[in-house]
Amino acid sequence: MKRVRSLHKQQGAEVVEFALTAVLLFILLFGMIEFSVALYDKAVLTNASREGARTGILFRPQPRNASEANSFKCNESQQGEDEDVRSAVCGYAEQYLISLGGPAELAISVVRSDANMPPGNEVEVTVDYSYQFLLLPGFIGTLGDLIEIQAVTSMRAE
Predict the structure, then answer these.
(1) What is the dihedral of CA 147, 127, 94, 85, to 10 degrees?
(2) Backbone CA torsion sign across 45, 46, 50, 56
(3) 117 phi and psi, to 5 degrees?
(4) Cα–chain-centroid distance for residue 94?
(5) What are the pLDDT digits (tens) for 67-113?
(6) What is the pTM assigned to this prediction?
(7) Distance between CA 11 and CA 121 in Å, rounded?
(8) Is 35 exposed, middle or buried (0-12, 13-18, 19+ CB in 10 A)?
């Protein structure tokens, strides 16, 4: 009789225990997923900047047509050789980047040591991206909404 009463008092304890541990479990699960996507996006941006730098050091006959501005975004239209660099970076990023907060907005900067790019000079491509979390800021208020990710690649024309 006592055993039946003690079991009767513990009825529903599993639900309470699961409710307490489920929150922590889901925060850890979504945290691993979101940080994995952020690390993947960092690798994609590194490869995109590398593709842009490779495009920037390609041999082109004189006169070379480098653009005046060295910083622009993917949806802007520019003229000149740096447009090819921007297109290479944007094309690679659009194909592989996982953007959870909508379309990706990249800020691309191209810096050349010499506009004519004779052998031995360098081109540096910098790609900035604001990674936006999907779920974590809702669970953890102090986390913030964005992580700034930057990839820089420098290559020498040979």
Answers:
(1) 180
(2) positive
(3) 50, 55
(4) 11
(5) 555 556 676 665 667 888 899 999 999 899 988 767 788 999 999 88
(6) 0.76
(7) 75
(8) middle
Can you read off the two tokens belonging to residue 145?
């909404």
Maximum Cα–Cα distance for the chain, whole Å? Answer: 98
103: tokens are 């379309």
What are the backbone dihedrals phi and psi of residue 36, each rounded to the nearest 5 degrees, phi first? -65, -40
Residue with tokens 């996006």: 41
Please choose, from the candidates 124, 151, 106, the residue with its C-alpha nearest in 3D space to the C-alpha of residue 70.
Answer: 124
Structure tokens at 143: 């986390």
Closest alpha carbon to 149 in 93, 77, 76: 93
- Of 35, 19, 10, give the one whose Cα is nearest residue 140: 35
DSSP state at residue 64: P
Strands 71-73 and 106-112: antiparallel
The pair of structure tokens assigned to 128 is: 């900035």
The rounded distance, in Å, linking the Cα atoms of 43 and 93 is 10
* Crossing angle between the packed helical segments 81-96 and 13-56, to the nearest 10 degrees: 160
- Residue 142 CA to residue 108 CA, distance in Å, equals 29
Task: Report the distance separating Cα 91 and Cα 26, nearest Å.
Answer: 35
